[in-house]
Structure formats: C-alpha cells, structure tokens
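Quick one - inputs below.
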Amino acid sequence: MAGTGVFEDIIDGEVFKYYTEGEWKKSASGKSVAIINPTTRTTQYKVQACTQEEVNKVMESAKIAQKQWAKTPLWKRAELLHKAAAILKEHKAPIADCLVKEIAKPAKDSVTEVVRSGDLISYCAEEGVRILGEGKFLVSDSFPGNERTKYCLTSKIPLGVVLAIPPFNYPVNLAVSKIGPALIAGNSLVLKPPTQGAVACLHMVQCFHLAGFPKGLINCVTGKGSEIGDFLTMHPGVNCISFTGGDTGVAISKKAGMVPLQMELGGKDACIVLEDADLDLVAANIIKGGFSYSGQRCTAVKVVLVMESVADALVEKVNAKVAKLKVGPPEDNCDITPVVSESSANFIEGLAKDAKTKGATFCQEYKREGNLIWPLLLDNVRPDMRIAWEEPFGPIVPVIRINSIEEGIHHCNASNFGLQGCVFTSDINKAILISDAMETGTVQINSAPARGPDHFPFQGLKDSGIGSQGITNSINMMTKIKSTVINLPTPTYTMG
Ligand SMILES: NC(=O)C1=CN([C@@H]2O[C@H](COP(=O)(O)OP(=O)(O)OC[C@H]3O[C@@H](n4cnc5c(N)ncnc54)[C@H](OP(=O)(O)O)[C@@H]3O)[C@@H](O)[C@H]2O)C=CC1
Ligand SMILES: O=C(O)[C@H](O)COP(=O)(O)O
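Output:
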C-alpha cells in the first residue's frame, strides 16, 4: 500500500508531499495534481502542485548542500549510494505496485524496473569511484617549443545543481539514471518526476532519505510539467538539465540557459530484415521489441522494413505470436496493458485510422476498450501514412515491404529521429555495413533495440536527443574539467 510503513511520512491525508531540506513538506499552494490510474481511469493518487516560491527555496537549498557534498570523499558518496540501492530493492514491492497503478506497467516488469534501478545506482557508485578517482597529468614539453617547466593537473569537478526530469514510462529507472551519476559526481539534485509515475518516484526518494544523504542534497518537486516545468528549466539556480521524454525536450533545449543538456527524446526505431535472416528470431524480437509495455518504450521497434521476398513468411510468424499475447490489466501480468492516458490512446487511434483510410492491411481488427488497445500489426504500410513516420508509443507496429537494402536504409535515415535501430541477417559483413549506414545512436544486430544494460552508452541522434546516457557517459557529462598548472623556474626531467 502506497504511503505506508517506512513510507508513511511521505503522505499527508490523501496527498503525497514534496521533498526538500531532508523533510517531506506540504505545498503552500493548497493545490494538488490527480494521478489517473490508466486501467480504472479514476484518480489513484494526488501529489502537491508546488509553487514557484517553493522551487526557489529548493534551488537555494540544493545549492548550499552541493558545496558541502563536493567535499565529501568519493568512498563516502559511494557508500551512501549503495545504501540507497539496497533500501530501494528491499522495498521493491510497494514501489512496483505504484508503477502498476500509475502507469499500468505489468506487475513483473514493474518489479524488474525497481531492481534494475537499484543495480544501476550501485554500478554508478563503483564506476564513479573509479573514473572520478583519477585525473590527467600533462607536461609542457610535449608541445613544440616548450621545455618541461609546466605540470598540468586536471580533474573532473561537479557542475552544481542538476535538474532531473524523467518520463512516465520508466519513472524510477530513468530518474536514478540521472540521480546516481549526479550524486557520485558531487552534484546536488532537483527531481521533477512525471505526473504519471510521481508517487513511485516519491517512494524512491524516500529510500535515498532513509540511506542518510545530507539535507538539501536531494530534492523532489511535484506538479504538472506544463505548469511548473518552464520555471524549473529556466531557473538560474540550475547548472545542468538531464531530461528524458518527448518533444518537450526540444522546447526545453531552446529555453534553457548556458547549461549542459542531456536529452533523451523520442524514437522511430527501424527493424531492417534481410532475406537471409532467421525469421523465427525476427518474429520473437518484433514481439518483444514492438509490444513490450504496450510499445511505450522509446527503444521499441517502431517500423519493420522487410525484404519483399520474405515478408509474407515473417508477417505470418508475427501474427501467430500476436494472437498469443495476453491483453488485460497490469495486475495480471498481461503482455498488453492500458496505455498511460486517454490522450495517448486517442493519438494511437488516430494513427490507426489514418493507416486504414490510406489502405494499410490490418492483420488484426482494431479494438479498444478505454485506454486498452489490442495489439495491431499493420502490413503493406506506405510512406504516405502517418504511422510510417510518427511514434505511436502504443501497441501498433507498421510493416513496410522493401526491395533493396538501400531502400531500408533510406527510410530509416529519412526519419527525424535517430535513437536506435536493428538489423537481422546471417551475414555479419552486411550487418556492419548496414549498421554503419544507419544514422542512429545505436544499432542492434540480430536483436531488438534496447537501452539496457544500463552501463552501455545510450544516445539519440537528430531529434532523438543531445549527448549520451549510460552510466559512465552520464557521470562524465555531469562534471567539468578543472586544471591546475604548476610553473617551475627551470626545466626538470624525472630521472629513473
Ligand atoms: N529517448 C528516451 O529514452 C525516451 C523518450 N521518451 C519519449 O517521451 C514521450 C513519452 O514520454 P512522456 O513522459 O509523455 O514525455 P513528455 O515529454 O510529455 O514528459 C517528459 C517529462 O517532462 C515533463 N514536462 C512536461 N512539460 C514540461 C516542461 N514544459 N518543462 C519541463 N518538464 C516538462 C513531464 O512532466 P509531466 O508528466 O508532469 O507532464 C515529464 O516528467 C515519447 O515521445 C517517448 O518516445 C520517453 C521515454 C524515454
Ligand atoms: O525510455 C525508454 O523507453 C527506455 O529508455 C527503454 O529502455 P529499455 O530499452 O531498456 O526498455
């Protein structure tokens, strides 16, 4: 039950509090934001609608706490992160239950997300101690015309206050993928969780609180992004923004000040299938890649580009697997659960209707009950259909038949997105050539796109993002370089 046991402090009546100064607080706004359960379509939880004044205080608190935290030994930072990871995993059940109720994530996937998040935090701690524990030592005479009279010591220092904004579909995992690197690098953290997923995030924040992090170091403000978001991202107290979500990120990148940005945005991940592909493997990966969590993954397979000669056989195999997908509530661990909101379901429906009007082959009847949309494979999709280019973020996968590899690569690269892609073939030489030609941050060979494991670099090109995530890259992105140069009166060379 949310807000009970070790989590009882985070709620007041029926409204969850926000967190700053090491305390759970009620907002002076007197307003709350309802979190609608996608399955029941009724209000499940309520969180505070924080005020701008409260954001100002949070930023000041984070700034003060960061100065002290930057003087905390790396091993101590890591120790606290390991504690938080252990507490998070210890309480995976209530946090997972929040995910089930807030974002209709299947129960077992919800538990997996929380455990994966604990593992991510611990890996952050270990990686941070390694990479932040070393710098560079440069000598001047490696540059022409110089004697060895200068020693340059460089180190990675924190940026200051990191603003973390995760999306609804991995509210815990994509929060800690920002929090862990920020903290181990010596930064303080202000988290603005997605409205759908906010209560799971607040429970996660309580785990950091119980681990004993310094007051003011970690803060969590709640409220609709459309209401409080701009005030946060344009706040002068912010020294770095790490955002994951949709087009909102593009708007933020135009409003933010002179601060480092880490943006993971939308995707239209293409799955290119060659004639020599293992079609059983392909079909299994289209199901896993295209329909997991009802397609609400930025790395979902979002368009299949299959050689005409094997298209019929592939579509038949995929349809047979679609028929076996369990559709229903997340509590029953169904494969296909309600999408996150009515607006999302309406958007998906619009794409399906457009495809229908323009002549796509519906391999299944379109069916929807509330936010629950039955899995749909669309064959004979053409480039004039919206589904060929737009990101449904739903259980609908378009198939475009191609007659050459070049045609597949062209469609993939004509997209404004460039997150991931995948190619299925038994010829590794062709796979590498195609991977090199695909303008995406990652190409998976003979498997569906995926961000995990979380220590792999993860980046979007073009409209899919700025910078690179993955634990090591995130830690480095949340630091800057400081140089100290020692000037000697006369040249000296260290002798053996
Ligand atoms: N590349 C990646 O790794 C991922 C990309 N995505 C993409 O995100 C979309 C779906 O996720 P979704 O959560 O709906 O994305 P949104 O962009 O709508 O929201 C992402 C986050 O931004 C917040 N937000 C909204 N408006 C503002 C604002 N003006 N300023 C600051 N923050 C704001 C949201 O808060 P609130 O919920 O209160 O509106 C939420 O926490 C899809 O396009 C998907 O592809 C999603 C996950 C991962
Ligand atoms: O935002 C997303 O959808 C996630 O980055 C996908 O992560 P996964 O590929 O590990 O499920």
